[in-house]
Every structure is written in structure tokens, then in C-alpha cells.
Amino acid sequence: MPEEFTLNPDGTITFDLDGAVRVLRRPTLRQYRDALETLSALRDEIEPSAEDEGFSTTVKIQLDKIVLWLDHIFKELAGEALPRTSDGEIDDTKLPAWLLSGELIASIITHWQAVPSHRGGR
């Protein structure tokens, strides 16, 4: 697992992105379900495009969708989006390769599943 993120016993996940530390809090049950549903929909959107597009175009589409999903997760659970350029776009030059890996997303979901939720709270 990359040293740039830490799965904490309280369900939070600490990230070091280009020298800036961000902590994803544990999601509420609704946020967790929304995250899973969004990932499922993302997979459904990506699979048909693989038939219609060339390989490099398909990979670019997949990465763009993963970045948007991660940006949403960071905004909602860390209170801060992924790094931005001066014009407000996501700055992909500041996104490490490990951030876009399926392994990271699987680690996040598995971590949230393994940590019991608080009763009646987040």
C-alpha cells in the first residue's frame, strides 16, 4: 500500500497529495451507499464505451470518470476537492498515479466495510 495514504482505525483515511494532507472522514451509511452506486454506474458507463472507442480513448474515459468520482468523495468527506489549476479545473499534473488505481478504490471501500459505523451518527 502506498505510504501516501493511511487507513486509520477510526474509519478515516489520511492522504498526502502533493504535500497537502487531507483526511476523508468515515461516510454516513447514505454516503457509503451513494459512493457504491456511483461506482457501479461508472462501471456501466465505461464498459459500453470499450466497444465503441479505441483502447487509449477508453482508458482516458475511465481515468476521467475515476478522477471525477474521487473529486466528489474528497469534496464530500474531506471538505476539500482535488488540487485545482488557476482556472478551477482538476490539476491532473498534481495527481499521483497511485490515486487513480483500482487498488486504492478497493482499499477505501474495504476499509469502510471493515470499520463498524457509529450508532445514529456518522
Q: DSSP strand (E) fraction?
A: 5-15%
Major β-sheet, in short? 3 strands, antiparallel
Q: What helical percentage do the residues reach? A: 40-55%
The general outline is globular
Helix vs. strand class: mainly alpha
What is the average of the pLDDT values? 82
Rounded radius of gyration (Å): 15 Å
| Number of domain modules | 1
Number of helices: 3
N→C terminal distance: 26 Å
Q: Please report the total strand number as a whole number.
A: 3
User: Order of strands across the widest beta sheet?
Assistant: 1-2-3
Give unreliable regions as ranges. Answer: none
Order of helices and strands: EEEHHH
Briefly summarize what is shown.
It is built from three helices and three strands, in the order E-E-E-H-H-H.
Description of the structure:
With 122 residues, the protein is mainly α. Helix content is 50%, strand content 11%. The protein is built from three helices and three strands. The protein has helices at residues 29-52, 55-78, 102-114; strands at 5-7, 13-17, 20-24. A three-stranded antiparallel β-sheet has the order 1-2-3, covered by helices on one side. The protein is globular and about 45 Å long.
What secondary-structure arrangement, pairings included, does this model have?
Layout: E1 5-7, E2 13-17, E3 20-24, H1 29-52, H2 55-78, H3 102-114
Antiparallel strand pairs: 1-2, 2-3
Helix pairs in contact: 1-2
Question: Which key features would you list for this structure?
Answer:
single chain; 122 residues; mainly alpha; three-stranded antiparallel beta sheet; 3 helices; 3 strands; 50% helix
